[in-house]
Design a protein that fits this description.
Elements: H1 5-14, E1 20-25, E2 28-33, E3 36-42, E4 45-49, H2 56-59, E5 64-69, E6 72-80, H3 82-85, H4 88-103
Antiparallel strand pairs: 1-2, 2-3, 3-4, 4-6, 5-6
Length: 108
Amino acid sequence: MARDPGLEELVRADLPRESFTEKAMFGGWAWLLEGNLVCGAREGSLLVRLGKGGDGWALALPDIAPMISQGRELSGWVRAGPEAYGNDGLRRRLLQAAVKFVQSLPGK
């Protein structure tokens, strides 16, 4: 899959004004806070880190699914499709929850 510049701009605009590091990752673009992955964007998909036990509310919504890596589900990570990340309020809520979770982690 390819990068999605439009989605990347939406994510940048929605993230709080903190010191995020951006880099190529997962075939797309990723945002890290103090070395911890917050989210990633690529064509047709927004990866969001909500933490173990923090993803249930998101998984109950349309066009949001568990993150699957190498055939296994990664608890605490969700993948939002275009219907979900295209909803401005929902995308912001997902990103705010991801930032809040990652801020609770020790920096790397």
